[in-house]
Amino acid sequence: MDKIKIFSIVGARPQFIKLAALTEKLHRLKFDKKVEHKILHTGQHYNYEMSKIFFQQMHIPEPDYNLEVGSHSPSKQIGLMMKGIENVFIKEKPDIAVIYGDTNSTLAGALTSVYIGIPVAHIEAGLRSFRMDMPEEINRTLSDRISTLLFCPTKAAAKNLKNEGITKNVWVVGDVMYDMFLYAQKYLNNKKILDAYNIHPKDYLLLTIHRKENTDNPDRLVQIIDIICQSGENILFLIHPRTEKILKEEKQFSFNRYNNLLVIKPVGYIDMLILEKNAKKIITDSGGVQKEAYWFNIPCIVLREETEWKELLSWKYFYIVGSDALKIQDSIKSTYRTCKQKSKIFGNGDASSLILKKIIEYLDK
User: Fold this and answer.
1) Residues involved in catalysis
2) Which end of the chain has less Cβ packing within 10 Å, N or C?
3) How far is Cα 103 from Cα 69, in angstroms, rounded to an integer?
4) Which CATH architecture has domain 4-175+347-363?
5) Which residue stretches of the chain have pLDDT < 70?
């Protein structure tokens, strides 16, 4: 068999983590002897904190191509990505394109590949929030419709695809983020990040906010921060660049009004896990952070009206609160006792090797 050329298309933090799981397996399982794996970074996350640091800390090879698209409206960003991806793919002629998750980079990679006749493998297929006003829902739904191979992290995701009439080349492989989570455990006893900000284990709530439904409404965003800070708990706020930009533009808003709020820039993957592991509770609108909270068994308060990770709804310490003041306050005050998770609903930590095996089998036909 000739060498297979696989192209990974990434552009945002969660995709870097999933990519790291795949590249780590390529090396460990020695697939690289018959696989040529190249990385195309769209530049969707274009600042150092949100991009380069992840490649360095997670030992991901430098991207073979970086389109450096940067920040634009969704339609313009996707258009620029598609133009750049097409130019690269016409030159490189990959055997398959691998897309990850539900970002604009995901959809741009899927559309471009299909238009020029390249098979698409979608990692994290089948997730649904059933809200088509969410950009992520549009991206993942359209990507699933045109992908060749669909790798689902859970049985519920595969069921969503079946309900939409998608049953061919669908596999439940587990979550590649769980692969990386398990791999990272040996690095999590380092407390340098805690010492750097003079914070103590189980003495703070960890906060992240980045989704459009929260950030595009400045009044809602400020209200959420107000409600959380009124709890009196110590709040560690990892601020997303877009969130920071919006808050800076709000002239009536100042972080100085809160004496229990510490705002810091985004951190690398390992430091993020350490901060999650040592948090008293986690407050977030991130899908990936929801799962990491579950794996750590740290109570998770979700600043959304729904979640695409329906499996978490049965977890006792999982709270869907949106921007409702009473729900946020009650979930922060709620008591918590450590309990062991009952089932491995996200797989056994071998999703990446299963995915690579299926890709090679498909291309070797």
Assistant:
1) 210
2) C
3) 14
4) 3-Layer(aba) Sandwich (3.40)
5) 1, 27-33, 45-52, 54, 338-343
